[in-house]
Design brief:
This protein has three domains: 4-179 and 255-312, no CATH class; 202-244; 355-416, no CATH class. The longest helix is centred in the last third of the chain and has 28 residues, at 289-316. The protein is α+β, with helices and mostly antiparallel strands and 416 residues long. It has helices spanning 4-19, 30-33, 37-51, 73-79, 88-102, 173-176, 178-196, 214-231, 249-269, 289-316, 319-323, 333-336, 340-352, 358-364, 390-402; strands at residues 55-60, 66-68, 104-111, 117-123, 128-132, 139-145, 148-153, 157-161, 203-206, 241-244, 326-330. The chain has a three-stranded antiparallel beta sheet. The chain has a three-stranded antiparallel beta sheet with strand order 4-3-8. The chain has a three-stranded antiparallel beta sheet with strand order 5-6-7, with no helix packed on it. Helix 7 (178-196) runs antiparallel to helix 9.
Length: 416
């Protein structure tokens, strides 16, 4: 079975034969790829959704679970301002988008004398050069800033990588899927020239007019042009007849190729076409928007977020803080909870099972706790009993049944 890349390469060759001698050339680069609507849409959706998740510093509790640490200096950078010119949303979106398009991205980090991070600054990947010391295997990053090259070591940057086989340098999806992207660029380039230069012909007129009657021909032509504009219909003279020209096989095949490349691009990113505005496509994850987001979150968003969490934990938290249980965490609950009814049932089950209390459920809904601590106790349904007590309860019920006097009253034992 041929791979997607091999199939796309065959599409490129078939498309070149289809276009014939028309001089078209497409150079596949990250910048050109971002000019494709499906490609741009996938990058935008993935980077926006990850950047919009709550992200902060937490600490493991002794009895399990974790608690938000809002007073930690790193939490301020992740939630308020990573550096003076950029919000946390913009910083994370920049990191993720650069990694997706270029294969890797970096953000430099500054620390004070106490080894605490004071600034996180993402850089455009096109301004970064990765260098390796062959003797030690260490990576260094050369950043072009205001015409000056600045070199940072591995420990001074957050290094986010896309798919990689050596774990050191990520490779751009544009490189992996070059034939697929080239099909889209060639097809869109041809269609643009085809319609721009007036090659496309919707139809033609036949008439009994004399070839010398140029003025009458111009009038009829203008009437037809107006009909395709705001008028909606054309008034033709006696003997005039309009003939529609159907789409040629070349045009039809080009449109099919263009649609196929759009599907291929969405597939390579793992984004449902319906989220890109293609309402004709169905998703195998379910028919609801919530199910689409749940599938996208688990298979695409969370793996990228986990890598970013692990990199920031290692680079931005001290060894002592890591041993004390500090960690960073993206919160994806809002994308995994489903619709309003499903979320309500989920909270009800969690409260009724004693897993969370009412105040914790209200916190998830951005609501204040109940007064006087009334919602701070964990509760369970009264009928629920420990498994090891079931035999005792059954025996007690049997004894109560035997001592019943037949009138609904329990007869006390004789020695009572």
């Amino acid at each position: 079975m041929s791979t997607t890349s091999e199939a796309s390469l065959k599409d490129v060759r078939a498309l070149e034969r289809l276009l014939g001698d028309l001089s078209l050339n497409a150079t596949v680069t990250p910048r050109n790829a971002m000019g494709i609507s499906a490609f741009f849409g996938c990058v935008r959706i993935i980077s926006n959704l990850i950047a919009a998740r709550p992200f902060g510093v937490h600490k493991e509790l002794e009895n399990g679970g974790g608690q938000r640490q809002r007073q930690h200096p790193l939490d301020y950078l992740l939630t308020i301002r990573p550096h003076r010119q950029m919000s946390p949303f913009m910083a994370i979106r920049t990191l993720v988008a650069n990694a997706i398009v270029h294969g890797f991205s970096i953000a430099t980090i500054k620390k004070n004398e106490y080894a605490q991070v004071t600034e996180i600054r993402p850089w455009p990947t096109q301004d970064v050069m990765v260098m390796e010391d062959l003797g030690t295997g260490m990576l260094f990053f050369q950043v072009l800033f205001n015409g000056t090259n600045i070199i940072y070591s591995e420990d001074e940057v957050i290094h986010l990588k896309d798919l990689s086989f050596d774990g050191r340098q990520g490779v751009s999806i544009v490189t992996w899927q070059k034939p697929t992207i080239k099909v889209n660029l060639l097809t869109s380039g041809f269609l643009e020239k085809y319609y721009e230069k007036g090659t496309f012909m919707a139809g033609f007129l036949t008439s009994p007019l004399s070839p010398k009657d140029e003025e009458a021909a111009k009038i009829y032509k203008q009437r037809v042009k107006d009909a395709f504009g705001a008028e909606g219909f054309a008034v033709l003279g006696s003997g005039m007849e309009w003939h529609n020209v159907s789409r040629s096989p070349v045009e039809s095949q080009l449109m099919e190729t263009f649609d196929k490349s759009k599907t291929d691009i969405a597939t390579m990113f793992g984004v449902p076409l319906s989220l890109l505005g293609d309402t004709e496509k169905q998703t195998s994850w379910g028919t609801g928007v919530e199910q689409m987001f749940i599938g996208l979150t688990r298979s695409v968003l969370m793996p990228i977020a986990y890598q970013l969490e692990q990199e920031i934990n290692y680079k931005c938290l001290t060894t002592r803080e890591l041993k004390d249980g500090y960690y960073t965490h993206f919160d994806f609950k809002s994308l995994l909870e489903g619709g309003a009814v499903e979320h309500a049932n989920y909270l009800r089950t969690m409260v009724n099972s004693g897993i969370i209390n009412i105040d914790e459920a209200r916190e998830l809904l951005q609501m204040a706790p109940l007064k006087d601590g009334n919602g701070s106790r964990n509760m369970v349904q009264g009928a629920m009993v420990p498994i090891d007590k079931l035999d005792d309860i059954i025996d007690r019920k049997k004894n109560e049944t035997k001592s019943n006097d037949g009138y609904g009253q329990t007869v006390p034992p004789a020695d009572a």
